[in-house]
Amino acid sequence: MQLTVLGCSGSAPGPRLPTSGYLVSAGGVRIVLELGGGVFGALTRHCDPFDLDAVLLSHLHLDHCADFSALTVHRRGHPEPPFDVREHRLPVFAPSHAPSRLAAAHAADRAELARLDLRTTFDFVPLKPGRYEVGDVAVEVAAAKHICEAYAFRLTHEGSSLVFTGDTVPCRELVDLARGADLLLADAAWRAQAGRANYLHMSGREAGEVAREAGVGRLVLTHVLPWSDSAGVLADAAEAFPGPVALAAPDEVYEV
Predict the structure, then answer these.
(1) Do 166 and 145 meet the contact criterion of CB atoms below 8 Å apart?
(2) Which helix (H) or strand (E) holds 160?
(3) Nearest CA to 47 among 60, 64, 61, 33?
(4) Which residue, 97, 178, 92, 186, is CA-closest to 140?
(5) pLDDT for res 195
(6) CATH number corresponding to 2-255
(7) Sorted alphabetically, which InterPro entries does this protein's record hold (predicted)?
(8) What is the pLDDT of residues 65-105, one digit of tens each?
(9) What is the Cα–Cα distance from 252 to 240, expressed in whole angstroms?
(10) 76 vs 160: CA distance, rounded Å
(11) Burial readout 60-94 (b: 16 or more C-beta within 10 A, e: otherwise)
């Protein structure tokens, strides 16, 4: 299994850095996790968007799904698609309100929104905790703790597994999902600070503590805010987690 970072900036893009987006390839299966702002362009450097087998959206803040609109334009407007996109709808695993939320983000006004039905192009699968399959890749879903409906994912193929936290604070569900994973791709927005609201994201230290408790093989930190001290976030995580730890970087590829 291979993980390619398409974008990893937290909440807002950084200089030459899209927000959240990751490509997972395993065997002949290609899955994109998140489609934040700027991610679609990065995706096209690594994969023909028509070759995708599924989209996974942990939640529907725009830094995780804004470029779903670009994917929609590509699939609905391309003059020479390799197949009939209405007959081969792309599976999209997302919170239950995704069809209306993503349509509203795509349409320019109410008149266009009234005509737009994304379900003719995409096969929306409402997420809930449990197990799904995309080809030979098993996808286990757990509830995350964010300020909206949000999920974390564990992808497993031929005995290898990676866990993506989405946006969350530490919680038992996340630790249980990540138990023994080869790689944990973890939300680590900032350095721990006294008095910081703790209902949005993990700090680097908290991500390290989750990784240690779950006994993962290695930790990759993502979603660091553009104005955060990334070196400090990394140092805090490394202090809490005894295994290999790194900051996600655009176009970085990890073998899992």
Answers:
(1) no
(2) strand 160-164
(3) 33
(4) 178
(5) 54
(6) 3.60.15.10
(7) Metallo-B-lactamas (IPR001279), RibonucZ/Hydroxyglut_hydro (IPR036866)
(8) 999 999 999 999 999 999 999 999 999 999 999 999 999 99
(9) 24
(10) 35
(11) bbbbbbbbbbbbbebbbeeeeeeeebeeebbbbbb
Rounded distance between C-alpha atoms, residue 113 and residue 201, angstroms: 32
Which of these, 200, 189, 220, lies nearest to 61 by C-alpha position? 200
Distances (CA, A) of 103 to 20, 99, 170: 20, 6, 31
Q: How far apart are CA 33 and CA 166, in angstroms?
A: 9
- Cα-Cα-Cα-Cα dihedral sign, residues 169, 173, 179, 184: negative
SS3 of residue 139 by DSSP: strand
For 110-140, the pLDDT digits (tens) are 999 999 999 999 999 999 999 999 999 999 9
The span from the CA of 224 to the CA of 248, in Å, is 9
User: Roughly what angle, to the nearest 10 degrees, separates helices 204-214 and 230-240?
Assistant: 30
Number of H helices, E strands in the chain: 8, 14
Handedness of CA 104, 106, 108, 112 (dihedral sign): negative
- Sorted by sequence, the CB contacts under 8 Å of residue 121 that are 6+ apart come out as 72, 75, 76, 85, 86, 89, 90
Residue 136 to residue 157: CA distance in whole angstroms: 7
pLDDT of residue 197: 59
Q: How far apart are alpha carbons 36 and 21 in whole angstroms?
A: 6
Longest dimension (CA), the chain: 55
**Beta strand 21-26 with 29-33: parallel, antiparallel or unpaired?**
antiparallel
- Give the ranges where the chain is alpha helix by DSSP (H): 39-46, 62-65, 68-77, 98-106, 110-115, 172-178, 204-214, 230-240
Task: Write out the two tokens for 107.
Answer: 């349409």
